Amino acid sequence: MFCGIDEAGRGPIAGPLVVAGVIILEEIEGLDDSKKLTEKKREKLYEEIIKKSKYHIVFKDNQTIDERGISYCLKSSIEEIIKELGENSYLMDGNTSFGIKDLEHKIKADATIKEVSAASILAKVSRDRYMCEVSSKFPNYDFEKHKGYGTKAHVEKIKKFGRCSQHRYSFKLKALGEENIGFQKSLF
């Protein structure tokens, strides 16, 4: 057995980064890249994955992303998953292993490797649920609609109300005349 790892929330301008690791213990039908599934299908699969897998989900809040950088948050989350799940083999969706020993990586693994697909679903659903939960505390931003991604409507809300405590201040917005678009510290 091996552990598939994927993340949700690397690119949004608000909310946490969520990284999940999954070791599938029983057959699960219908797994795919979370972005290719409807919200209803993801929610159904989420519950099945939780029941039929060994898993670990890590949240890194927006303040930690601002303070330490997205690369640090990804690497430390993966290291926590490896420590928690204790498998010998790990595969991460993407094009880097972040210098982590025993971590392999593969582009589009979330669409081709069932363990990574399952991790993709756990990360996405966990993050989406979080953004819907905090939406009621920050009603000016409609987080339940865009989940913190930099949509035109979200940027318009920031123009009108400024950023709130859920926003990533290190992610600069060209629409607001800010420099260093996509600035991301790397501290590993």
UniProtKB/TrEMBL annotation:
EC class name: hydrolase
EC numbers, comma separated: 3.1.26.4
Ligand binding (a divalent metal cation): 6-7, 93
Main location: cytoplasm
Alphabetized PROSITE patterns for the sequence: RNASE_H_2
Subcellular location: Cytoplasm
GO function terms (MF aspect): manganese ion binding; RNA binding; RNA-DNA hybrid ribonuclease activity
Keywords: Cytoplasm, Endonuclease, Hydrolase, Manganese, Metal-binding, Nuclease
Cofactor entry: Mg(2+); Mn(2+)
Residues in RNase H type-2 domain copies: 1-183
Cofactor note: Manganese or magnesium. Binds 1 divalent metal ion per monomer in the absence of substrate. May bind a second metal ion after substrate binding.
GO biological process: DNA replication, removal of RNA primer; mismatch repair
Cytoplasm as UniProt keyword: yes
InterPro entries with a match to the protein in the record: RNase_HII, RNase_HII/HIII, RNase_HII/HIII_dom, RNaseH-like_sf, RNaseH_sf
Role, per record: Endonuclease that specifically degrades the RNA of RNA-DNA hybrids.
HAMAP family, A to Z: RNase_HII_B
This protein's name: Ribonuclease HII
Gene behind the chain: rnhB
